[in-house]
Amino acid sequence: MSGKKPYDPVESFHELSLLWEKQINDFINHWTANKDFIKMSNAGTEINSRYLEAFKKNQETLASVLNLPTKNDIANIASLTVQAEEKIEALEEQILDLQDSMKSQTREIESIVDISKEIIKLTKQLKTELVKTKKEQIKTKELKAELQEMKLELKKLTNFKEEFESLKGLLEKDKEVERELADSGTSK
After folding, report:
1. Is 96:86 a contact under the CB 8 Å cutoff?
2. How far from the centroid of its chain's Cα atoms is residue 143's Cα?
3. Residue 3 DSSP class
4. What mean pLDDT do residues 73-82 have?
5. Which residue did the predictor score with more confidence, 71 or 138?
6. Burial class (CB in 10 A: 0-12, 13-18, 19+), 70
7. Distances (CA, A) of 30 to 9, 16, 37, 40, 169
8. DSSP 70
9. Which H helix or E strand runs over 166?
10. Bigger pLDDT: 78 or 63?
11. pTM to 2 decimals?
12. Distances (CA, A) of 102 to 88, 99, 107, 166
């Protein structure tokens, strides 16, 4: 076949766009290099900014008369909404913290209640032990009183024994004296 390249429309369009780009760039450079154009564009920009400011003021005045929100009003509302959302998030965090602290306090209260129940149980046990101890103390006092009575009776019995022994001794002396008298009376 031949050494010719086939026709490519994309490549042709690319070359054409490069040519247009170069011509437009040259035209813009020629315009911007002109001092009169720069002065006119500055004046036009200044006039445009004045008209834009006047338009904004008129638009705000008209919006306030018609009771319509302006762009600034909507921006303020958006800012307030964001602030309100941030405050709500902060409040939600505080609520979660409060819930956590309430849960921990509830656990502490439950443990205190459990300890109180144990203390009450121990107190009841101590009370029953105290009642038992008082009963035993009363019994001990009664036994002590009985022991003292027995001591008294034992002393009385000891005294009685001593008297009996002394009477026995006296009786034996009387018998000896009688024997001696009887012996002496028979011997005379």
Report:
1. no
2. 59
3. S
4. 92
5. 138
6. middle
7. 32, 21, 10, 15, 170
8. -
9. helix 71-187
10. 78
11. 0.40
12. 20, 5, 8, 92
